[in-house]
Write a structure and sequence with these properties.
single chain; mainly beta; 25-stranded parallel sheet; 5-stranded antiparallel sheet
Length: about 500
């Protein structure tokens, strides 16, 4: 005990003379390698807004470093239709500065969005911004996604029972939608579907798109009863940009699908069969009175090039349909069955077009593994295959000498150099019209090469070589716009020409 008092006095002296000590987790580091981590890479406001309202979303920000960091700035830009505010450490602000996060600790950021849901074709449907964090010279971002209209939102949705998508509000696909086996998704006439970048509608069960619509007169291109698929960017600069979303994919067991009076635009694929092992019977779809435009996988990172109709061992029956402006292929069939009646392929993409618009092949490599070799089948009647392929070949049959008997093309207008003959694969037969000299100028009313009016128009010109060159087909008495076809000498392609 006689040593206890001197020891306490010594310790007291040391406390007085030693400098102040802070816990390690409170010491601020300025090391540029000390970055933040985030619970999510996207803050998504996907609530259905029935009126102007404010919604808050949480974002956890983590400092995994042993020492504290000082976040120089946290900020978010406001855009038309959406007003953002931040709530950090109890303070409401639009920009926060010098926010400290202790070592091995976290920060809760509340992002509040006030959204005006008033429908307007002029207002962006989707608003994407960056929530920015600037720390030790590093700038990091978290995406903030907000929708400015009242809609049905389908976020990574799995449809397990028969479901109807109504047309009273738009539908938004985010992180893809899966129609499971045994379920049918029916899409009503007039529905609008907007899909986020990289998202697909994947059908394992069955898709019935506009199955019941029966027009009573001539349709206009803007008819409100058409079902329309496109990307979710509504700004004017995105109106005709290809590759904004994935497309519609049918799985191995998906059969008896129907797509009618439908527009699919600005995607990586239009309709895509993925049956890589050639299971029988093939998945199948009937396409009638539809439009596919601006299809491309350029820059998307997909291993299979884009096409409006891509069939890997699947069966397409396509009638009265326009396919235009595809940067890879319009129709790409691998070991599948294609029946094309009154189809117009008018391929004038924005990029240099060095691929055929229609390509058939018995096999393809998927992830460097070849699929089974199966002869593709093509029956094409009263159709047009035209475009700006630099080599003059809009039609190609890979290893076609192995399956000439499965190709039947008749009463069609074709742009092809390789098959401009009467040989085994030659198409100068069956009343086909090959490479007409007047084709580039007068085949269609308005093209990028001969632009007339205010828009492109792939109806037939008055001098078109496709006029009155078709053969009547049973049951197909009306064209893409529901106009009657000539009962004895119909026009070739999706449109029946109407004299002014």
């Amino acid at each position: 005990m006689r040593f206890l008092l001197p020891l306490l006095l010594l310790l007291s002296s040391l406390v007085v003379v030693l400098p102040g000590c802070e816990p390690k987790e409170d010491l601020i580091t300025t090391d540029s390698s000390a970055k933040l981590e985030f619970a999510e890479d996207t803050v998504k406001f996907d609530t259905v807004f029935a009126s102007v309202g404010t919604v808050s979303k949480r974002l956890w920000v983590y400092n995994r470093n042993a020492r504290a960091v000082r976040v120089a700035e946290i900020s978010l830009i406001n855009r038309p239709g959406v007003t953002y505010s931040l709530l950090i450490n109890g303070d409401a602000t639009s920009t926060a500065r010098d926010v400290e996060i202790r070592g091995k600790d976290s920060l809760l950021v509340l992002v509040r969005a006030t959204i005006d849901p008033t429908p307007s074709d002029l207002k962006p449907f989707l608003v994407v911004d960056d929530l920015k964090f600037r720390t030790n010279g590093n700038e990091q971002q978290v995406k903030v996604v907000s929708y400015g209209q009242n809609a049905y939102f389908h976020d990574a949705e799995r449809i397990r029972r028969n479901t109807i998508w109504r047309s009273d509000k738009p539908h938004v696909i985010y992180n893809s939608v899966l129609v499971e086996r045994g379920a049918t998704l029916t899409i009503e006439a007039g529905a609008r579907i907007y899909s986020h970048a990289g998202s697909f509608l994947v059908v394992q069960g069955r898709l019935l798109c506009n199955p019941a619509f029966q027009p009573t007169g001539e349709l206009k291109p803007e008819d409100r009863n058409l079902v329309r698929f496109q990307g979710d960017r509504r700004e004017e600069q995105y109106r005709e940009v290809p590759g904004q979303w994935g497309g519609i994919q049918f799985d191995t067991l998906s059969r008896d699908n129907v797509v009618r009076f439908t527009e699919i635009k600005n995607s990586n694929y239009g309709l895509f069969f993925f049956n890589r092992r050639n299971y029988q019977p093939h998945p199948s779809v009937l396409v009638e009175n539809s439009l596919f435009t601006n299809i491309s996988t350029v820059g998307s990172g997909f291993g299979i090039e884009g096409a409006a109709l891509l069939g890997i061992y699947g069966d397409f029956v396509v009638r009265n349909t326009l396919i235009t402006n595809c940067e890879q292929y319009a129709v790409f069939g691998i070991g599948n069955v294609n029946q094309l009646d009154y189809v117009t392929v008018a391929n004038y993409p924005r990029l240099l077009h060095d691929k055929p618009s229609v390509l058939l092949a018995p096999s393809i490599e998927v992830n460097r593994v070849p699929t089974p070799a199966v002869a593709p089948r093509l029956t094409m009647r009263n159709s047009i295959v035209w475009g700006t392929n630099k080599d003059g070949n809009e039609l190609a049959f890979a290893n076609g000498e192995l399956y000439p008997s499965t190709i039947s093309i008749s009463n069609s207008v074709l742009k092809t150099k390789d098959y401009d003959n009467t040989g085994t694969l030659g198409q100068r037969k069956n009343n086909n019209i090959l490479n007409p000299t007047e084709g580039p100028a007068y085949l269609f009313k308005s093209t990028p090469i001969r632009f007339r009016g205010k828009t492109l128009d792939f109806q037939l010109d008055t001098l078109s070589p496709a006029s009155n060159k078709g053969l009547p087909l049973p049951g197909l008495t009306r064209d893409l716009l529901n106009r009657p076809r000539n009962s004895s000498t119909p026009d070739v392609g999706a449109y029946e020409r109407v004299n002014p």
